[in-house]
Structures are given as structure tokens and as C-alpha cells.
Amino acid sequence: MADNDPQSTPGLGAEPRPALSDPAGEGSDRAAGLPDSAHGSPPGSALDSAPGSARVTDGAEPGGAAAKAAARARLRAARRRLTPAEIASRGQALARVLATLVPPGAAVAGYLPMPGEPDVRAFLSDHAAGGGAVYVPVIASPDRRVLEWVRWTPEAVLQRSAFARIDEPQGDRLSTQALQELHTQGLSILVPGLAVDDHGARMGQGGGFYDTSFGAGSDLGAGSDLGAALRLIAVVHAAEVLSPGSFPVEPHDLRVHAIATERGATRLRAL
Ligand SMILES: Nc1nc2c(c(=O)[nH]1)N(C=O)[C@@H](CNc1ccc(C(=O)N[C@@H](CCC(=O)O)C(=O)O)cc1)CN2
Ligand SMILES: Nc1ncnc2c1ncn2[C@@H]1O[C@H](COP(=O)(O)OP(=O)(O)OP(=O)(O)O)[C@@H](O)[C@H]1O
């Protein structure tokens, strides 16, 4: 199981592998200037060493790319400071929190965590044991930002993605649309991210995959008929729930319905 342990390879980006395209340098760890606007963050949170700075204004660069890169670097650095024991105990707490947001037996599109990410595997195992179908993403095309979905159980045989430090199950793949059409009665998406604001905007790893799959411009975006039965639940560490303006938000960015952290659930829109 060690290969499926998000803590087994400490230090993000340490392994040689084909990097996903990162034109704005989001993958780099340059000094971050994330504003000190988090609220409810405990001491030692992702932001409490931020230099005093103005709120993100998007500046001159399109989409606030430099500001996003800085925010990502800071948030990733904070994740690297988490211990395996912290991640594991938060994972147990998350399992209880997510059970309050996801109806028993409902289909769930989850994820298998990268190092430092909230570990949702305890929840996914419980949910699968209760009869709910669980899927996780496979990076099908990094260039076209396409995800596909494979059924997951705790026994799944995993293979490391060629593009990221993410384990993916083998098996039949479904497109995002096919997954949704299979579960028109409701599908809960656990959306991984580096941060979310309490208006439901989210900042991810910089691949654009979830925005392309579920954001405003997608076939399944808010307001679309197909997207109506989707529940988008951002899963982040509690210190990563930030106030609006803490990171740049673009029109294509998806908006989540709810936020789950190890400290509890926040419902933002009707689920
Ligand atoms: N667990 C998990 N699975 C997921 C996602 C995620 O955020 N979390 N994704 C959400 O979209 C997709 C993969 N997206 C990714 C997008 C960018 C990078 C990336 O740029 N990685 C950098 C290094 C990042 C780091 O050091 O932490 C790289 O490859 O250089 C990785 C994954 C699909 N599966
Ligand atoms: N729907 C879209 N159409 C075109 N470009 C997009 C779309 N969504 C994202 N992008 C582009 O993809 C890149 C990454 O976007 P962004 O920073 O929003 O990703 P992210 O939300 O952090 O990633 P992910 O969803 O993979 O976690 C940016 O260059 C962005 O402009």
C-alpha cells in the first residue's frame, strides 16, 4: 500500500517525471505574497507568515497568473509542513464530515490524494462499503485538460500517472459526461484544491482539469441541464478556506456548492 500513501514521498516535485504544462510557472516555489486575509485560520496556518500585502487585484497579467503562482507556492509549502500523522487524523475527521454532505449510496467522484492533500480515502472506503459507487480521475490528456473516471474500491490495482504524482486505478474509463449520464439522479464530486474562498471559488493545482470539466464554460457547468444534478464539494485543509480576494478568480473557474475540511462542512448553495 506504500505506493498509495500520499506521505510516502515527502517533498513535492522531487521525483523526475514529465511535468504538466506550467506556462505561468505555477509549479515553482517562488516566494509567495499571499495576502493576510484568511479568517478562522489557526496559528501555524498556511497564511500566518504572509508578509503584509494588499489584496490580490489581478494586476496586469492575464488571470492574475503571477499572484496565483505565488499563492500556490505558499499553500504547497504549508502542505509540506504537515506530518503523516496530521494528514491521517484529519482524514478520519474528513470521513465523518463528508458523510454529512454525501447521501449514503450516492455516486461519488473522489480523488486519490497527492502528497499533502486532504486524504479522503477513509471516506471513500466507508462510502464504497456502504454500497455507493466511487470513481476517481485519470488524466487522459494533459494538453486538452481532459479527465476520465475509473471505478475505485480499496482493492483497486493502482498505477502512477505519467503526468503527476497521482495514483490511478486500472479499468474501464468513462468520460465526465458519461459518468454524469450514468448517475443522473445525483453525483457528488469531491473537488481537490489548494484553497477555496467562502464564496465557493477554488484554486487548484493549475492544470485546469476541474474547471474544464465542471466550470462555467463546460457542458456540465452551473446552469446547464446536465450539471444540475452535480454536487461540487471542495475538499481542503481548514487553514485553506480563505476570504474572497485572497487569490485571483477567473471566469472559467468553477464554483463549489459546499466545502469540507477536517473541521466541518460549509454549505454555500443548495445541494
Ligand atoms: N489527487 C488529485 N488528483 C487529481 C487532481 C488533483 O488536484 N488532486 N487534479 C486536479 O486537477 C487532476 C490532476 N491535476 C494536476 C494538475 C497539475 C499538477 C502539477 O502541476 N503538478 C506539478 C507539481 C505540483 C506539486 O509539486 O505539488 C508538476 O507536475 O510539476 C498536478 C496534477 C486530476 N487528478
Ligand atoms: N474552461 C477553460 N477553457 C480554457 N482554458 C482554461 C479553462 N479552464 C482552465 N483553463 C486554463 O488552464 C490553466 C489552469 O487554470 P487554473 O489556474 O484555473 O487551474 P486550476 O483550477 O488550478 O486547475 P485544476 O482544475 O486542474 O485543479 C490556465 O491557463 C487557464 O486559463
TrEMBL record:
Its cofactor is Mg(2+). GO terms for biological process: folic acid-containing compound biosynthetic process; tetrahydrofolate interconversion. InterPro entries: FTHF_cligase, FTHF_cligase-like_sf, NagB/RpiA_transferase-like. It catalyses: (6S)-5-formyl-5,6,7,8-tetrahydrofolate + ATP = (6R)-5,10-methenyltetrahydrofolate + ADP + phosphate. GO terms for molecular function: 5-formyltetrahydrofolate cyclo-ligase activity; ATP binding; metal ion binding. Keywords: ATP-binding, Ligase, Magnesium, Metal-binding, Nucleotide-binding. Residues 1-68 are annotated as: Disordered. Residues 1-10 have a biased composition (Polar residues). Its EC number is 6.3.3.2. Pfam families: 5-FTHF_cyc-lig. Belongs to the 5-formyltetrahydrofolate cyclo-ligase family. This is 5-formyltetrahydrofolate cyclo-ligase.
